[in-house]
Input
Amino acid sequence: MTSRLVVLVSGEGTNLQALIDACTDEAYGARVVAVGADRTGINGLNRAERAGVPVFVTRLSDYPAREDWDAALARECARYQPDLIILAGFMKLVGKAFLDAFGGRCLNTHPALLPSFPGTHGVRDALAHGVKIAGCTVFLVDDGVDEGPIVAQASVPVADDDDEAALHERIKVAERALLVDTVGRMVRDGWSVRGRKVRIGR
Ligand code: GRF
Output
């Protein structure tokens, strides 16, 4: 059976592109059925349109309160009956309505080795701290900020002359591979969560 993925983006969409590309192989086990965004004018949406994937935009500023936006986002996603939702560079925190609908089957990717350096500036913060090993984390979204159970991680060595942009680009190479591998294994083999421990496989 092919699992249905809804991917949410806010920017460049290279993680989305990696998923779209992986899904062209039927053996991968998933299909991107829709791409959602919190803003227009981003490359992520262009990538979806080029691939013939339906898109939707749910802007926070179009709703009277954050809860209304969150419920609208959940409704938009639900229309596509996703098995898994992937936040791939989606720069908003989802709320209660969204988690009530999709908690336990919503993945996020973060460009740092959580629980170190959560938040918007994970790469900058890791670099400023002087770490020698950086990396990325794929995790299940809960109501914290980058706090949910960790599904997979990959490490990336920091070079002496790295600035934020150079390190982030190298992390993103590892991040795309990790996301594609993790989503594929989850949809093909299933997963379970006990406390903070996530196990892929039956
Ligand atoms: C990724 O590094 C993601 O972890 C971070 O923003 C980047 C998004 O990249 N939150 P892209 O839009 O998938 O190219």
The chain has one domain: 3-190. The radius of gyration is 16 Å. The helical segments are 14-23, 43-50, 66-78, 96-102, 122-129, 164-189.
